[in-house]
Amino acid sequence: MILNRLYTHQRTGKNLATSASRTDFQRDFDRIIFSAAFRRLQNKTQVFPLPGSVFVHNRLTHSLEVSSVGRSLGSVIGEFIVDNFENELDENSKNFYQHNLQNVIAAACLCHDVGNPAFGHSGEDAIASYFEKNEIDLKQKFTEKEWADLVNFEGNANAIRVLTHQQNGKDEGGTQLTYTTLASIAKYPCEAIAKKKGIIHRKKSGFFQNEKDTFLDIAKSVNLAQESVEPTIFKRHPFVWLVEAADDICYNIIDMEDAHRLGIVSTSDCENLFIELIRSENSNIKRVEEKLSILTNANERISYLRAKVINALINKSLEIYKTNFSKILEGNLDKALLDIYKSENRSLQEIESFSIDKIYNHKNVIEIENAGYNVMNELLDHFIPPILKENSERKSYDKMALKLLPQQFIYENGTDYQKVLGVIDFVSGMTDNFATDLYRKIKGIDIGMTM
Fold first, then answer.
1. pLDDT at res. 50
2. Which residue range or ranges hold the HD/PDEase domain (predicted)?
3. CA distances from 313 to 63, 182, 239, 352 (A)
4. CA gyration radius, the chain
5. Is residue 157 part of a domain?
6. Cα gap 254→172, rounded to integer Å
7. Do 244 and 335 share a domain, yes or no?
8. Which candidate in 15, 97, 138, 440 could, as Cys together with 445 as Cys, close a disulfide (CB 3.0–4.6 Å)?
9. Is the same domain home to 300 and 369?
10. For 33-46, what is each residue's pLDDT tens digit?
């Protein structure tokens, strides 16, 4: 039975099994919490610029909330699998689905954004476009597949690298997570050259060529269905749908709450959109209205409605997952859980349209994306030309530039591709503030010693 072969305790690196009070999947969660890559998310933009006096979500708080939603989804689906397939599960699998699937989904949700650069999605675009703009000078230095990785830079693929790659001077296996958790964040389990719009598991890429062997090990250990050997394409792991749903639920709703706190969205607009969605799924809307009648604080009213909306979307996602479970196991579902719901629910469609119009195209959001794009582009241009020169060909200014690269990101004995990935590791790992400060210093805008 495939359900007995969807998980493994194997992890990256050469760690021997240890006895501990925590399960392997609880240890994954804890390792992510204490990792530097996760900690840096506290100063990476989610949507809005990070203001001083008004709290909005950054990528760390977003990831924590996604993890909370993911744990709920994993818990219910684990019980569903045990209740409906008990006769087909071995004892280890019964224990896994009943007690540990929720830990896997929570851990995967926690680290789903660790590969995303600073400044939101404009950071990803800046890295990809840098190579597109410099194609004439750079493309001949890489293989076709390596070049595809660079011009299609993708935060999901970078997450696999961040979590598994051994940097200079560091331990083997990166964060050393289980293959189960790593497979659960692979929304696009294909190489960049195989990406294709309109196909959910090939919309973007899921791993770089440098991590291809690692990804093949992951795929084999959790029995991912292979769609193509050349180019390499797998079907999604069944757990991915739950991680994706948790992420979709949070960003669809919480971005609206942030916009309200910042005064971008009025209380009445936010309330009306949330209430309509709750009404479409909750026959007990009267109880919600009674609760609102005693809440006079605008932020508290929106927080209460946000909680009710998230609960409604969790329940709907669970329903759709269960209904489509056989398709999910076969790898044949062709639409995200929340997209399936969105296609049949006008209220969620209206929230999405409103968000695009009033939030994602707001002046402050566009400004940070433009600024981030330029900062990331300039940083790459400062480091990539020098790193690709032979040491004997480097001028003094090239050598000075490379002195700013920490040693763990310098692969002088590697290929040009590996050298460039080292630079991307450094730049994509930066927080918004660090990237901005370094940009200002190398451009001569800020001069002087700072600690």
1. 53
2. 55-261
3. 17, 25, 18, 14
4. 23
5. no
6. 37
7. yes
8. 440
9. no
10. 999 999 999 988 77
Domain hosting residue 268, numbered range: 3-116+239-359
Show which of 359, 378, 404 is a domain's final residue: 359
pLDDT at 6 over 80: yes
Domain limit, last residue, from 294, 326, 359: 359
The answer to whether position 269 is within a domain reads yes
Q: Residue 451's pLDDT is what? A: 55
> Is the same domain home to 275 and 379?
no
Q: Are residues 58 and 100 in the same domain?
A: yes
Same domain, 59 and 88: yes
- Domain total in the chain: 2
**C-alpha closest to that of 433 among 39, 38, 44, 35:** 44
- pLDDT above 90 for 49: no
Of residues 19 and 131, which shows the higher confidence score? 131
Residue 431: left if φ>0, alpha if ψ -120 to 50, beta else—which one? Answer: beta
Instruction: Report the distance separating Cα 160 and Cα 164, nearest Å.
Output: 6
**Mean pLDDT score of the chain:** 92
The count of residues in the chain is: 451
Query: Which pLDDT band, with edges at 50, 70 and 90, does 53 fall under?
Result: very low
**Torsion-angle region of 168 (φ positive above 0: left; ψ -120 to 50: alpha; else: beta):** beta
Question: Can you give the CATH number for the domain in which 74 is found?
Answer: 1.10.3410.10
Within this chain, do residues 72 and 38 fall inside the same structural domain, yes or no? yes
Lowest mean pLDDT among 15-24, 402-411, 434-443: 15-24
Residue appearing with tokens 């595809």: 148
